[in-house]
Every structure is written in C-alpha cells, then in structure tokens.
Description:
Layout: H1 2-21, H2 25-32, H3 36-44, H4 51-61, H5 65-70, H6 76-79, H7 82-93, H8 96-115
Helix pairs in contact: 2-3
Amino acid sequence: MLETELTKFFSENLQRLMSDRGYTQRELGDKIGVSRTAINNWCLGYSMPRMGKIDKLCGILGVDRSALIGNSCAGINETLTKDERDIIDKYRQLKRKDKAVIQGMVDILFTKGELK
C-alpha cells in the first residue's frame, strides 16, 4: 500500500511540475536519457524511476526530492525499527520475481495467522 501511495504521489507531482515548466514527455525523456514511454509510465503511475533518475529529474525541474517524493513518506522512518529499515532496504534490492516470492510468503504467513 505504501509503495502505491508513493507512486501516486510521485506521478501527480511529476505531471504538475512538467506542466508548470512546459516540458513534454519526449523533451523530458531526452534530457534525462529515457524514452517517452518511460516518462509516460511514470506519469500514469505504472512505475517509478530509480533514485538516480529522480535526482536527474529534480535537477532539470529545479526542485529537491521532496517536491517529487517527499511528503508522502514524512515521519515514516522515525516509526520503523532498525531491523524493519534493514528488511525494507534489502527488499528494495531484490529483483521483481524475488519480490513476488517474498510477497507470497508473507501472504501465506498471514493466512495461517487468520486460521488460528
């Protein structure tokens, strides 16, 4: 759920900033070295760029990270334990198929918990 909210927050802010600064998807893609389709997917909330591309976007759009991704996560790190942050960091480094395996395992654990 958090990832979905972050993606929505990012896509809405990206669209607004592009409009405010007069960039088309193609123009912005050319400036940061990605296709118009990639920009379109980000604008529609289908995917998010990696942090390096977010930093490039910030430089081109003249904003800091919080303008694109900040407020939706404000305060979350303060509520996580170190172990929880470590797990999240490791999860983010996994490939998509490996994330699906982890999500399946978590679903199984919750299903077993509901049966007790």
